[in-house]
């Protein structure tokens, strides 16, 4: 089927609003089309970012400006007095200019470095306020006198008449790198300035909105300061002035750009790039400073959790890249194998540590994290996407049939996961820690504390003969139901999604795919990220013990918030981006898919793990977990029945989520912790 013309004009990945029956998407190439199609497949990771390089002509002017090299002279740049430029002056400009003045004084003091002294004096004026000024690389005239003069101390820094004709070969024989003045410059002047520019570049890059300053400073250290001073021309641009002949090295008008949150390096979002060094710091600090001489456990635990966020992003990008470049079978295997690797690495390391220490708290924290992920992905993720998407779109529609499949699986999975818990409530023996007679009558009322259902009565007959077989049965049936759901949605009933990928992007814009990550590169990154994820999870569990024992906050709350939702932040960002593009179906599916995988894959894997490595983990949850999970699933299904929603319904889901968080916050810690 061919897409309608209105669909062809839509931006890539936007749902065609005029297509009532079909969901028509546009893609630039086959790989991108495969990724878009995978987003609508049950069990596949939903990924918003492109896995291939977008054609330059298809990008907006705003995005094109982000990737500019700061070497374009505009006819009229407008006023340079902006908040971002003033911020540059306060953060970098004044002390960078002062440093250039000091270096200029040193160069003049050496006599031989006088040309570089004049260069630094001119650059001090430039870097104090570089906006609306230009640095050009000029050529020396093809005359013996000019060549001889260029070997001396002449400089064309701040103006003067520009020769009409230049010849690049004249300078080639002057031996710039063999000059005594160059040696003085490289020893006394350049190192300090290069270090300062490096500091400015790193700081501005980490601030993201000041990335133009990072580019400006990097270009100055790597290009301008290594040119012969005679070839550097610094001048202020005037609107009526004809641009000079010669190569433009630097020309900057704005120090800040709020759209740099869209900036990507080789397909990787700038936030993920900036957080990557944090992973290295976490690993070095965690394993080198194991006695906690430099930092405490709280700092290391926080760093380990923050490091999980960029690693989750890289894992998601690698999975999407491999799936988009492979056939369906390979994509399904990769998604099933690594789709839940972020959460499982933390859960398994926590259970191992709890088993070695004989501490039941770790198993309870894992159960809290599982429940927190389930509740958060059912309430918070779709609710937040509805609220943010509803700000831009008055009413959003989604595929109620595809959402119904996930809802049915959620009902099945929640019922299966909590079946052993309900079984223990019915047949378990209620045991209390201490009881007090409040009426002073032996037959009166007793007030009991720390009560729980004991499954180990009569040497554990109830647990080993009844509960444990039920747990194993459920752990087999849930993955089987997950496979049936995959077969139903991806094979026999694919029409439920009714996705049509069209390549009618724009006339004549048929581009071959230029992938950011090849399959082998994506596989290497996936394995390395998984390895680093395991190390960070190990550090997090290693340093969570003091927090659990010394914190006044309930362990339930720590599990359902920090440990549950921090690894899901990249997924939440993807859901918000889909919602902003009026594609709420994918926003809802992100939360549902994670919740289904928690119940149907992660929990059975943990049960299977306990068979080979005995831990304190049993599939018996507290009443609070049971009620919160079941209520969340029922509410979500009620909200999603009609296939449309607005920001008010999203607000309801988010508010209910925060109410449940308040319940967990004020709940007492689990028994044994």
Question: What characteristics describe this protein?
Answer:
A middle domain of Talin 1, 59% helix, YccF, ion transport, disordered N terminus, transmembrane helix, mainly alpha, single chain, 673 residues, three-stranded antiparallel sheet, elongated
Describe this structure in words.
The strands form six sheets. Strands 3-2-4 form a three-stranded antiparallel beta sheet, covered by helices on one side. It folds into two domains: 57-139 and 178-266, no CATH class; 267-436 and 446-500 and 512-666, A middle domain of Talin 1 (Up-down Bundle). Helix 12 runs antiparallel to helix 13 and helix 16 (457-492) packs antiparallel against helix 21. The chain starts with a helix and ends in a 7-residue tail after the last helix. It is built from 23 helices and 13 strands. With 673 residues, the chain is mainly alpha-helical.
């Amino acid at each position: 089927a061919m897409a309608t013309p209105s669909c062809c004009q839509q931006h890539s990945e936007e749902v065609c609003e005029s297509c009532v029956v079909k969901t028509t998407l546009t893609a630039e190439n086959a790989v991108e089309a495969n990724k878009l199609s995978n987003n609508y497949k049950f069990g596949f990771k939903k990924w918003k970012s492109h896995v291939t390089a977008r054609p330059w002509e298809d990008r907006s002017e705003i995005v094109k400006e982000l990737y500019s090299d700061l070497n374009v002279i505009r006819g009229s740049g407008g006023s340079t007095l902006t908040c971002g430029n003033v911020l540059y002056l306060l953060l970098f400009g004044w002390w960078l200019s002062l440093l250039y003045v000091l270096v200029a004084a040193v160069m003049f003091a050496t006599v031989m470095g006088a040309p570089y002294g004049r260069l630094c004096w001119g650059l001090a004026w430039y870097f104090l306020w570089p906006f609306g000024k230009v640095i050009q690389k000029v050529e020396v005239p093809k005359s013996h006198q000019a060549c001889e003069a260029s070997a001396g101390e002449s400089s064309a820094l701040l103006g003067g008449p520009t020769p009409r004709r230049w010849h690049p070969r004249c300078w080639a024989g002057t031996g710039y790198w063999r000059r005594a003045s160059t040696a003085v410059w490289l020893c006394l002047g350049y190192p300090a300035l290069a270090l300062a520019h490096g500091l400015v570049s790193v700081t501005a890059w980490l601030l993201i909105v000041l990335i133009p300053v990072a580019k400006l400073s990097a270009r100055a250290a790597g290009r301008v300061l290594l040119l012969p001073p005679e070839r550097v021309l610094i001048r202020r641009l005037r609107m009526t002035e004809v641009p000079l002949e010669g190569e433009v090295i630097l020309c900057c008008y704005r120090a800040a750009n709020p759209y740099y949150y869209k900036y990507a390096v080789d397909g990787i979002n700038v936030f993920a790039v900036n957080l990557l060094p944090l992973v290295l710091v976490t690993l070095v600090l965690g394993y080198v400073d194991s006695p906690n001489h430099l930092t405490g456990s709280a700092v290391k635990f926080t760093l380990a959790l923050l490091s999980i966020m960029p690693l989750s992003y890289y894992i998601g990008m690698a999975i999407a890249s491999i799936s988009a470049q492979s056939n369906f079978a390979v994509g399904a295997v990769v998604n099933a194998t690594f789709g839940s690797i972020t959460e499982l690495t933390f859960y398994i390391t926590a259970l191992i540590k709890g088993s070695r220490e004989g501490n039941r708290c770790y198993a309870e924290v894992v159960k809290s994290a599982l429940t927190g992920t389930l509740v958060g992905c059912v309430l918070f993720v779709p609710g937040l996407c509805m609220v943010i998407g509803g700000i831009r779109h008055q009413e959003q529609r989604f595929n109620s049939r595809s959402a119904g499949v996930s809802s049915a699986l959620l009902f099945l999975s929640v019922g299966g996961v909590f079946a052993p818990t309900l079984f223990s409530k019915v047949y378990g023996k209620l045991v209390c820690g201490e009881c007090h007679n409040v009426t002073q009558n032996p037959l009166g009322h007793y007030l009991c504390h720390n009560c729980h259902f004991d499954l180990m009565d009569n040497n554990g007959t109830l647990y080993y003969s009844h509960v444990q077989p039920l747990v194993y049965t459920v752990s087999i049936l849930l993955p089987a139901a997950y496979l049936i759901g995959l077969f139903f949605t991806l094979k026999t009933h694919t029409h439920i999604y009714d996705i049509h990928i069209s390549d009618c992007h724009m006339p004549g814009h048929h581009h071959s795919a230029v992938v950011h990550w090849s399959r082998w590169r994506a596989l290497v990154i996936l394995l390395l990220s998984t390895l680093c994820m395991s190390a960070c999870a190990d550090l997090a569990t290693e340093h969570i013990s003091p927090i659990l024992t010394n914190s006044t906050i309930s362990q339930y709350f720590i599990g359902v918030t920090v440990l549950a939702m921090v690894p899901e932040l990249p997924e939440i960002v993807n859901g918000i981006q889909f919602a902003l593009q009026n594609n709420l179906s994918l926003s809802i599916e992100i939360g549902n898919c994670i919740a289904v995988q928690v119940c149907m894959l992660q929990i059975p894997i943990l049960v299977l793990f306990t068979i080979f490595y005995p831990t304190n983990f049993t599939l018996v949850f507290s009443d609070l977990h049971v009620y919160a999970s079941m209520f969340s699933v029922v509410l979500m299904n009620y909200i999603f029945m009609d296939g449309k929603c607005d920001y008010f319904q999203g607000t309801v889901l988010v508010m209910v989520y925060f109410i449940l968080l308040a319940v967990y916050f004020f709940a007492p810690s689990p028994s044994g912790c």
